[in-house]
Model the fold of this input.
Amino acid sequence: MSKKVGFVGAGFVGAEAARQVMSEGIANVALVDIVGDMAKGKALDLTEAAPILKTAKSAIGGSDYKLLQDSDVVVVTAGIPRKPGMSRDDLLKTNILITKEVCNGIRKYAPGSIVIMVTNPLDAIVYVAQKFLEGTCKVIGMAGALDSARFRTFLSMETGVSSDDIQAMVLGSHGDAMVPLVSSASISGIPAKELINEKRLDEIVERTQKGGGEIVALLKTGSAYYAPGISVASMVKAIILDENKIIPTCTQLNGEYGESGVFMGVPAILGTDGVKKIIEVSLSEKEKKLWENSLNHVRELMSVSDSIIKNEKIQF
Done:
């Protein structure tokens, strides 16, 4: 039976991810957006590209959540985007309310699906979505795949070596408190710290942490979408094709890293069941401090989310 991936939010990120999923022949796609004609138009556009892409996959689109029916994976990008000068945290209240509505649609038409949240602030929204979908769907978040790609890109720029030869990952929350792992970053097996001095590595870490904001400032009227879209498509592919790939993923910790109940970006083996296993890695002393800062940031976001849910009297 042909696989199906639903996308709630047919803006730049959702549409780019859908294009990647369809063009690689991974699955048929369904685009759902409150602007139904836009979703329908993008779906038709994608389907018309199928003969050139040499894929038998197709796309449907509209505003009805019923289009998500029979989806194996649902990707959620719905929410308001950041504007210049706006932090991801500023988005929280509005995007919690949007997430509730989206989760109601998923619960009704795509129970049992694996849900990948992309909406910011990512860690808090994954936490909230899991509450809304508890017992219905497994919920994870896309952040580390994107942040790791940025980290690898900046290491490639610094050394002049193909990013294909660079292994590096980013853990923790999505935002300024993320944790790029310098201690385990390598370039064709050579530790990055042997090729790049500590000062430059610190600057690359900071650029990675602020990578999304850098693009927001340059675009002025939106945020990144090529790298985020392709990053979430890589997670979808790992799940649909049961690739057992290690991809940094925002998921709930259950004793790993000495934490429970917190949603953090960690290396995870992704396959048909979503997160099959969380991988624990050693951290340097500097990275441990960043990790603790990241944990505190996420705990604060979770606490603020709980307050918003209580104050707004949002029902699960």
Summary: The mean pLDDT is 95. The chain has two domains: 4-142, 145-302. The chain has ten helices and 14 strands.
